[in-house]
Amino acid sequence: MSTTQSERLRVLLEPLVSSQGLDLEEVEVDSVGRKRVLRVVVDSDEGADLDAIADVSRALSAKLDETDAMGEGEYTLEVGTPGAERELKEHRHYVRATDRLVKFQLGDGGELVARILDVDEEGVDVEVPGVKGRKPTVKRLVFQDIAKARVQIEFNRKNKNEENAEEA
């Protein structure tokens, strides 16, 4: 579907999502065979649990039913969160990814995998893991030098409570 429809849907749905205490991250309309799928991605600083997603899904469904925003014909509404390996696009995405491992593609063509330590208006402070027994180093990345950033999944990272227990 056209970007114009997605933009109109965003304008229609964003106030409803915000009233539920969530941020509207994405609105996408896809054709799957003869059916259409409206995918709405929401999130918040605290995350969005299943109850919050169900509540916002009901509110969006009711609003879409009372308008002709999706036009005639059947469609499926899917409401969800960005997922574990989300791409970081907005400042709030970087804030929410603090203490997470992120793969950065830099504007100069370089690549860096590092943990976000702190975020401010100009950029991020990251911890670059040490190689071959060396200690990690802290590096500053300004937003304008970041071409793309995506959160990485970590399966074997100890949480802070486990690390503190081992140090004791």
What does this structure look like?
With 168 residues, this protein is an alpha+beta fold. It is 29% helix and 35% strand. The protein has four helices and eight strands, in the order αββαβαβββββα. It has helices spanning 3-19, 50-66, 91-96, 160-167; strands at 23-32, 35-43, 75-80, 101-106, 111-119, 123-128, 137-142, 146-151. The strands form two sheets. It has a five-stranded antiparallel sheet. β5 (111-119) and β6 form a beta hairpin. α1 (3-19) crosses α2. The chain is elongated, with a radius of gyration of 20 Å. The model is unreliable at 161-168 (pLDDT under 50).
- Radius of gyration (Å): 20 Å
Helix count, per DSSP?
4
Query: How many strands appear in the DSSP assignment?
Result: 8
Low-confidence stretches: 161-168
Note the overall shape: elongated
Q: Approximately what portion of the residues adopt beta-strand conformation? A: 25-35%
Oligomer: single chain
Arithmetic mean pLDDT: 87
Q: Major sheet: size, sense and barrel closure? A: 5 strands, antiparallel
Helix share, percent? 25-40%
SSE run: HEEHEHEEEEEH
Structural class: alpha+beta
Strand order of the largest sheet: 7-6-5-4-8
Separation of the first and last Cα atoms: 58 Å
